[in-house]
């Protein structure tokens, strides 16, 4: 039997499609799944591609079916399952073994696993894969981290199966050592959360502020997809909004429960951003919005207690489509600026030397946040080095012409009681970021008052303290008494 070039564990949604993609590119692959009944089903569905696939029933058979030195892709849930499989594979793979963890692992786990495997003869590549089911099957975006030489061993297969941009560039790259690939994938997902939340808020403006039907909103999103907002998420939003439920013949969004799920990458993005001192407030707002959405019973009780806000007819109208388009664009710029600022800081902190233009380039196709906008970001990062995307000439131009719309939309939504947590936080970040003198002078004074934490002065170097002692404070008059 001709041995396989590579093996794969986990024939779920992503693993089975990735295996078919690999087979379609003529690479022989051996596969194994924990639950055996999945195997014949997968081979049956593979059709002609089955000739490039070796189905195996035990992990030992899987290893025996791969050409040494052996490489195995794990496409299984992040966390304990990955540790368990690495534990099983390590002795079986032996010297020169390579494990590619292609799930959404926490980069901290990847860093730990790389260390734990040191000296064992087995190497780990942590590789984020984005694009969902369709991407995995026909071309995902892939973000790899680990030893450069280890990635080189699978580079040909990865480049063959990756998505390609219109100009033919593969959307996959080695981005840095140990956890770099999984970190970039985490931030990708954080941005995905922010994008999705802001789109949902704009949908809310059309539904609750303007009284539009889903199909009418779908037409507007379809139109937006021909301009600056052109992206996969806008495209699928238009398709989702025009979809009808077969059973009820109602728009499908109207019968879906408003309770969002999440598996962790959005939360990790927000937490890592704060840890790195580069807050990603739009991502945080998006995570918070999903959490709040899950408290359905509490929200219903609160609606009974307070009543709804007053999304009076006219808070928005169909004629505000352009205003809302520009507001979404401004919010998107801020969310991406925050995400890339986190990547830049992580690169510095962990010594990864992340190539930010490459990150933007490999997100242009294949992944969930793919868009033409990422081409503009890649070009912006190729110019003079800046700390924040908001300081590049291209994005200064976009923000100058669109932040007014964001302000108008957030203000009108606030007046009408329409929640816009992500768009509001994008505006707040923008206004805080561009304010040369903020209001934390007062916070520093308060900290010094209650904890003698000290403060810097604008006119003298060094650390200083205020004279806050009770005896120096003017007495507080009692009510009715003259000061
Ligand atoms: N779905 C998506 O759009 C995307 C998912 N991902 C990530 O890819 C990974 C896989 O996701 P997805 O394919 O959606 O998940 P699925 O639930 O569809 O499949 C999970 C697979 O993992 C296997 N598995 C679970 N636990 C173990 C274990 N302890 N040991 C061995 N195999 C195990 C399952 O086998 P069994 O049949 O025996 O249960 C199954 O084959 C996750 O990390 C996910 O976050 C990344 C990008 C997109
Ligand atoms: O990685 C992905 C896309 O890039 C997955 O679709 C991800 O699992 C979605 O995350 P969540 O379930 O938390 O919404």
The CATH superfamily name of the largest domain is N-(1-d-carboxylethyl)-l-norvaline Dehydrogenase, domain 2
Quote the CATH topology of the largest domain.
Answer: N-(1-d-carboxylethyl)-l-norvaline Dehydrogenase, domain 2
Task: Count up the domains.
Answer: 3
Poorly predicted segments: none
The assigned structural class equals alpha/beta
Function: Catalyzes the oxidative decarboxylation of 6-phosphogluconate to ribulose 5-phosphate and CO(2), with concomitant reduction of NADP to NADPH.
Organism: Mesorhizobium liriopis
Protein name: 6-phosphogluconate dehydrogenase, decarboxylating
Domain 6-phosphogluconate dehydrogenase C-terminal: 181-469
Please give a structural write-up.
This protein has helices spanning 13-24, 38-46, 59-64, 80-93, 107-117, 132-138, 148-161, 180-209, 214-224, 232-242, 252-255, 265-275, 281-294, 296-306, 321-350, 356-362, 373-382, 393-416, 421-433, 440-451, and strands at 6-9, 29-32, 53-55, 71-74, 98-101, 123-130, 141-145, 172-176. With 483 residues, it is of the alpha/beta class. The protein has 3 domains: 6-178, Rossmann fold; 186-433, Orthogonal Bundle (N-(1-d-carboxylethyl)-l-norvaline Dehydrogenase, domain 2), CATH 1.10.1040; 440-472, Up-down Bundle (Single alpha-helices involved in coiled-coils or other helix-helix interfaces). Strands 3-2-1-4-5-6-7-8 form an 8-stranded mixed beta sheet, sandwiched between helices. Helix 1 (13-24) links the parallel strand 1 and strand 2. Helix 15 (321-350) crosses helix 18. The longest helix has 30 residues, at 180-209. The relative contact order is 0.09. The model has no long low-confidence stretch (mean pLDDT 96). Bound molecules: NADPH dihydro-nicotinamide-adenine-dinucleotide phosphate and ribulose-5-phosphate. Ribulose-5-phosphate binds next to helix 8 and helix 12. Keywords: Gluconate utilization, NADP, Oxidoreductase, Pentose shunt.
């Amino acid at each position: 039997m001709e041995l396989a070039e590579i093996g794969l564990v986990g024939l779920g949604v992503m693993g089975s499609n990735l295996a078919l993609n690999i087979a379609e590119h003529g690479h022989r692959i051996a596969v194994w799944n924990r639950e055996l009944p999945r195997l014949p089903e997968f081979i049956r569905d593979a059709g002609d591609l089955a000739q490039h696939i070796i189905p195996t029933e035990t992990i030992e058979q899987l290893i025996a079916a791969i050409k040494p030195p052996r490489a195995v892709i794990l496409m299984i849930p992040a966390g304990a399952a990955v540790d368990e499989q690495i534990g099983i594979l390590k002795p079986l793979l032996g010297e020169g073994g390579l494990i590619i963890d292609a799930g959404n692992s926490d980069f901290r786990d990847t860093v730990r696993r790389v260390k734990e495997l040191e000296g064992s003869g087995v190497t780990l590549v942590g590789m984020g894969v984005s694009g969902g089911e369709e991407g995995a099957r026909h071309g995902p975006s892939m973000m790899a981290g680990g030893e450069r030489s280890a990635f080189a061993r699978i580079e040909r297969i990865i480049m063959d199966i990756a998505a390609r941009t219109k100009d033919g560039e593969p959307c996959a790259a080695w981005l840095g050592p140990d956890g770099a690939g999984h970190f970039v994938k985490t931030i990708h997902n954080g941005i995905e959360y922010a994008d999705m939340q802001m789109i949902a808020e704009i949908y809310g403006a059309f539904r609750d502020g303007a009284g539009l039907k889903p199909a009418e909103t779908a037409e507007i999103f379809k139109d937006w997809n021909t301009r600056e907002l052109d992206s996969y998420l806008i495209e699928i939003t238009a398709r989702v909004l025009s979809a009808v439920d077969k059973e009820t013949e109602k728009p499908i969004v109207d019968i879906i429960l408003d309770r969002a799920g999440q598996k962790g990458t959005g939360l990790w993005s927000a937490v890592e951003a704060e840890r790195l001192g580069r807050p990603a407030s739009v991502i945080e707002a998006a995570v918070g919005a999903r959490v709040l959405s899950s408290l359905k019973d509490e929200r219903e009780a609160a609606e009974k207690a307070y009543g709804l806000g007053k999304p009076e007819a006219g808070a928005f109208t169909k004629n505000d489509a352009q205003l809302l388009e520009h507001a979404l664009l401004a919010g998107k710029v801020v969310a991406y600026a925050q995400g890339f600022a986190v990547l830049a800081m992580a690169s510095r902190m962990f010594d990864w030397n992340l190539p930010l233009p490459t990150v933007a380039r490999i997100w242009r196709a294949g992944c969930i946040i793919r868009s033409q906008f990422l081409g503009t970001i890649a070009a912006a990062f190729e110019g003079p080095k800046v700390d924040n995307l908001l300081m590049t000439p291209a994005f200064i131009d976009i923000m100058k012409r669109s932040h007014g719309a964001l302000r108008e939309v957030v203000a009108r939504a606030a007046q009408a009681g329409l929640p816009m947590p992500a768009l509001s936080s994008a505006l707040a970040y923008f206004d805080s970021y561009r304010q040369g003198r903020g209001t934390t002078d007062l916070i520093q004074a308060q900290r010094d008052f209650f904890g003698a934490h000290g403060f810097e002065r604008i006119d003298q170097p060094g650390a200083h303290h205020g004279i806050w002692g009770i005896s120096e404070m003017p007495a507080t008059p009692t009510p009715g008494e003259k000061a």
